[in-house]
Specification:
This protein has helices spanning about 1-15, 25-30, 35-55, 60-80, 90-110, 110-115, 125-160, 160-165, 180-190, 195-215, 220-230, 240-255, 255-275, 280-295, 300-310, 315-345, 355-380, 385-400, 410-430, 435-445, 445-455, 460-475, 480-490, 490-500, 505-515, 525-535, 540-550, 550-560, 570-595, 605-620, 625-645, and strands at about 595, 600. The chain is mainly α. A two-stranded antiparallel ribbon has the order 1-2.
Amino acid sequence: MSAEITSVHAAAAATVPESFRDRAEDRWTSMPGWLRGVILLMSAAGVALSVSYIFALIPMLDLTYYFLLMAAYLPVAYLLLPAWKGEARVTWASYLPALAICLLTLLMAWHARSLVFGTWVPVKAPWQLWIAAAIFVLVLDAARRSGGYVFLAIVVALALYPVYAEYMPGILWGPPTSLPRTIAFNVFSGDAMLGVVTRVVGELIIGFLILAALMVATGAADFFLQLAMALMGTSRGGPAKVSVLASGFFGSLSGSIFGNVVSTGSVTIPSMKKAGFPGHYAGALEACASTGGMLMPPVMGAVAFIMADFTNTEYRVIVMAALIPSLLYYFGLYCHVDGFSARHGLKGLKRADLPRVRAVLKDGWPFLVVLVFLVWGLVFMRWERLTPFYASALLLVLTTLHPRLRIKVSRIPDLFYQISKLLSQTMGLLLPTSFILGGLMATGVAPVIAASLVRMGGDGLVPVLAIGIGVCLIFGMLGMIVAAYLMLALTLAPALEQIAGLNTLAIHLFIAYYASLAAITPPVALAAFLASRISDSDPIKTSMHAARLGIVLYFVPIFFLFEPALIFQGPFHLTVIWTLLNVLAVILIAAASEGHMPFRGRMANWARLPLFACGLLIGFPEWKSTSVGLLIAVALIALGARTATSRAPTTAT
């Protein structure tokens, strides 16, 4: 079965657009052998450095650690990401910036004590400005390589905002600042590159990325896919349910929407089409399932780690807060699939064609043990940043004892390559966003914007929420989820707290969820567009269906914004009550969307839109609207399902 999955993955991956293909492997093999050896040694040194720092084995200044970590991994971003579209092999245009950033960060590690005990903003010597300018330009080049020219343009515009802030009108005005001071502030300040983003990468994300690389190296992705097939494959619409479950498993580990689409979608989308699902439906479902993976505990995307640091909240609290909303989202996808399958008479796969649960668990039980241990360490033991390192050690012990999962000596170089690849590309994408913080913090414009939003909102939240949702979606459509969160965490979050005294964590989760939603929101739904290339379907049609299938995620953030008990920020009895009501709401919303009510059958077309509205009324945390929704829903189900039972099922189109 594993060989079959691999062959299907390879065939489907060939349909992925050029802009989304991972060319890192080709560029890696094009490098001289001695250079690859140096990179692997740097990767191993980076792992040893992080363990030494996080476990306090060697006394080290924070800034020394950050710059040494950049020297170990950031150069690899220039080597694995092309300087231009046609640079298939590594050329001087990638070697030079890689060497330059390595030397500059090593130099800064040497001067870290001076930077800590004596400010370099403004610079005291011309050579300090030259170093700041060089690092600034090189990090911007990493932004261009990792996020494209639109990402670069937005980062540059916001990073240099202090330079032209004096010419901006109204609330956007800021005091005049020179270009040299702005560049120095962006590179040397604890409110910019040496602040929250770098701290999160170096202290929180690194452990989880090392664990993810170990899981991939030992075969976890294949295990979770086979487990999903064994559990869900025989049920009606089995391949689609496999997609939901597998993407939830894999996305929780990877934290990458697009990587999830390519990795699991290359297998699940062809399987769904073979089972009778239309191409646009298969692509839309995979896009939705992959998007939810970024929000699925225990390992979430970079935004969750930054949120923990930004709000001074323990990461375990973030994990617990995201649990119910993410489960509601995946339950909604399951209900959509089940309703579509029932309405169109789609069957599951034959048991003979699927792996057995017992056999899959026998081969991969260490992965489940490690995940349970990870949750236990985060939630109950409160080990925080130490947890993924303990989990990695446990994984190494368990896989060493398991003959089929044991990492062979020949695989160790690939393991360190994967660690270097994950960390370098994470740094290349996240470090530039720290300049956005620098630009807003240097001018002091963030609190002014927040105050203006408060005045704009007056006694109502709707205008402010509408602005926030709009900014989230626009930035998210550009793939700038972290940038969207950072901007709104500085401006929108304080405004919402002042207007209505809303829960701080609920506000920040609300921002993160809506930024992620852009991946499935037309007209620029990047995850849906990517999935449509694998499913060979119309991108617009696929994105429209993705927005429909993921509809739960559009409303759940609003629900927990007004009832924090849904994220464990309120009385437990309210958590239970509103979770159960939201489960019912999700069932009704999916039934209205797919035209099929569980245990009742088809719904009449006239009843579907009112039933959808009832689902929203029931889920919204306000007792009057919930009661009205429940009463009308009962009547609609009684009448709408009865009038449609005599109609024959339609074919899937």
